[in-house]
Design a protein that fits this description.
The complex is a heterodimer of chains A (347) and B (260). By secondary structure, chain A is of the alpha+beta class. Chain A has eight helices and 20 strands. With 260 residues, chain B is mainly α. Helices cover 80% and strands 0% of the residues of chain B. In chain B, helix 2 crosses helix 12 and helix 6 packs antiparallel against helix 9. Chain B is globular, with a radius of gyration of 22 Å. In chain B, 34% of the residues are buried. The chains are: A alpha+beta (347), B mainly alpha (260). Chains A and B meet through strand 6, helix 2 and helix 4 of A and helix 7, helix 8 and helix 13 of B.
Chain lengths: 347, 260
């Protein structure tokens, strides 16, 4: 049985339905990211789990118990906010101890947990400081310690890294993931940053317009997007219009491509297929198409070549090697790909 | 040139406010012919009515402050947390005491709560004291609400509340341990402003016939020459002491200093 079960969750604000029949099951110890653009309903789902929003319909079960009607302070759920939300009038130690104090834990035990938590987040000597005396990264670490100190059943992270600079964001996301694994705590991570979602999660829920477009491992979501939205939202993708030639083949710009798996399409039907930039190669291969180079982008170790193929501008990523200079803009060339890398989109 | 103009304006402004005060203070020290003395102040302090009326007003001020905080604090907090759309309405209501003169309010009270009404508060001293306190709460409302609301504006009320809730805190804990300490300077500002209003208030206390400090000052002013300015200087000193206390609280509050 799943540890957290969200069944048919619906949330409307007036006439605006922001979450539509949302279902999600999360196993104990799993970290699941809700990924999507602003307004897709990911934060609303999180707030319903936390108890700050009441679902219009549907149920929320934690460890088999229906908590839909429970107050936020009765749910034993830890929360990390984008804005840190440390109590400004309390020291770091007092912030971490707050939840324990509310629970009525004895002082000696409280102090022990505070020391343990501060060591866990790597700030053992900063217990006496006030939040304003800490950097953004340190504040967010303290927020994590505070959320974990009460040993919550579930940890919710609402874009906790968004307010931090790039370098801190990178190190903190690794730390959060390590701590989550170490403690074996079940977590939901809300973000609009695909890199964060893909790098930290066991599974990713890509949301759009209040529904889950796709739920899968980061590899599945990135490599096998099932909808056009997921394909375009997660990573860079080249889309081609194709024509079905039966269940096992399709035609792109007059070139027949034999697919490794059968697809549901009638002969002559129009399809959209997708290819990641790293799946395309310069030169002839399994499936080869003529191309014209239109531009170059240096992305450090990667060189992104913009080329026109079958009337569509595509992006092709190749390693930036000093011994292989890139083709000049305007060069007529060939690009190729393997049929197994082609993703046929459902919608 | 602009520096000179700025300094000249500042000096003019300072003189505009300070000269009457200096004149009043100097006059209050001239009770004994030919020399400066504190005779007028001694006379004021020797008058038992001074302490009786001041004590009475101070007691009512403390009750007014406590009642005002209990009324305004949760209201301002709830409006910020759950009813931001109601803010203009609440602000308008809290501004009404500035638009409606105290005399109108007190006559309304007398009409509503006289001895032949369903709640005859004016029929007893304690009842009238309650009525007067409620009147003071109303008069102080614009200042108290604004002071508390300004304090609340400096913190992220919603996120802090949600953070506390997620840690298991109920409304009382949130209010007393998270919100109140973070808006303490605002609350104290409101409290000291309330104190200043109550100490000097005349209309309500006089019309409800209560032995408050305001009517005492008026009575003294009508019958004596040197004591009234001495009393005014004392009242002025009390007000400035209150403002000084606000500054002191701000200075000693580490996290408040950080916000500033």
């Amino acid at each position: 049985m799943a540890f957290l079960e969200l069944s048919n969750l619906v949330k409307t604000f007036g006439a605006n339905c922001v979450v539509k029949d949302f279902d999600l099951s999360i196993d104990r110890g799993e970290l699941v990211s809700l990924l999507g653009p602003s307004g897709c309903g990911k934060t609303t789902v999180l707030r319903m789990v936390a108890g700050f929003e009441t679902p219009t319909a549907g149920t929320i079960k934690i460890d088999g118990h229906d908590v839909t009607a429970q107050k936020p302070n009765e749910r034993a759920i830890g929360l990390m906010f984008q804005a840190y939300a440390l109590f400004p009038n309390m020291t770091v130690a007092d912030n971490v101890a707050f939840g324990l104090k509310v629970k009525g834990v004895a002082r000696a035990e409280r102090d022990k947990v505070v020391v343990e938590m501060l060591r866990l987040i790597g700030l053992p000597d900063l217990g006496g400081r006030f939040p304003f005396q800490l950097s953004g990264g340190q504040q967010q670490r303290v927020a994590l310690a505070r959320a974990l100190a009460v040993r919550p059943r579930l940890l919710l992270l609402d874009e906790p890294l968004s307010a931090l600079d790039a370098k801190i964001r990178l190190s903190l996301r690794t730390e959060i993931r390590e701590i989550q694994r170490e403690l074996g705590i079940t977590a939901i991570f809300v973000t609009h940053d695909q890199e964060e979602a893909l790098s930290m999660s066991d599974r990713v829920v890509v949301m759009n317009g209040g529904i889950a477009e796709q739920i899968g491992t980061p590899f599945e979501v990135y490599s096998r997007p099932t909808t056009r939205f997921v394909a375009t939202f997660v990573g860079t993708l080249n889309l081609f219009e194709a024509e079905a030639e039966g269940a096992g083949a399709l035609r792109i710009n007059g070139v027949t491509v034999r697919l490794p798996d059968e697809i549901e399409a009638t002969r002559g039907g129009r399809l959209t297929v997708a290819l990641r930039p790293e799946s395309l190669h310069l030169g002839a291969g399994e499936v080869t198409l003529p191309a014209t180079v239109e531009g170059l982008e240096f992305l450090g170790s990667i060189l992104r070549i913009k080329a026109r193929v079958a009337g569509t501008q595509i992006a092709l990523d190749t390693f930036n090697r000093a011994d292989a200079p890139p083709p000049a803009v305007g060069t007529k060339t060939l690009v190729s790909f393997a049929a197994r890398d082609l993703v046929v989109l459902n919608a | 040139m602009s520096r000179i103009v700025a300094w000249a304006t500042l000096i003019f402004g300072a003189l505009f406010f300070l000269l009457p005060l200096i004149g009043m203070t100097e006059f209050s020290l001239k009770m004994r012919r030919g020399v400066y003395s504190f005779d007028a102040y001694i006379k004021v302090f020797e008058d038992p009515t001074f302490f009786a009326t001041f004590g009475y007003s101070l007691t009512l001020a403390v009750i007014t402050i406590l009642f005002g905080i209990m009324l305004v604090m949760p209201t301002a907090y709830w409006v910020r947390l759950k009813l931001p759309q109601a803010r203009p309405v609440v602000e308008f209501i809290t501004l009404l005491p500035l638009l409606i003169p105290a005399i109108v309010i007190v006559f309304g009270y007398i009409r509503l709560y006289n001895t032949s009404s369903w709640l005859p508060l004016t029929g007893s001293a304690i009842g009238t004291d309650i009525l007067l306190t409620m009147g003071y709460v109303t008069l102080a409302m614009p200042n108290m609400y604004r002071a508390v609301d300004t304090g609340l504006r400096t913190i992220d009320v919603v996120t802090l509340t949600e953070a506390a809730q997620s840690l298991g805190a109920g409304w009382f804990t949130i209010m007393m341990r998270v919100i109140l300490p973070n808006v303490l300077v605002g609350v104290l500002s409101g409290a000291f402003l309330t104190l200043a209003i109550v100490i000097g208030e005349f209309t309500m206390a006089a019309l409800l016939n209560r032995p408050a400090f305001g009517p005492f000052m008026q009575l003294l002013g009508a019958n004596r020459a040197y004591e009234p300015p001495a009393l005014a200087v004392i009242a002025f000193a009390i007000t400035w002491a209150c403002i000084g206390l606000i500054q002191l609280v701000t200075r000693f509050s580490k996290h408040e200093r950080a916000k500033a």
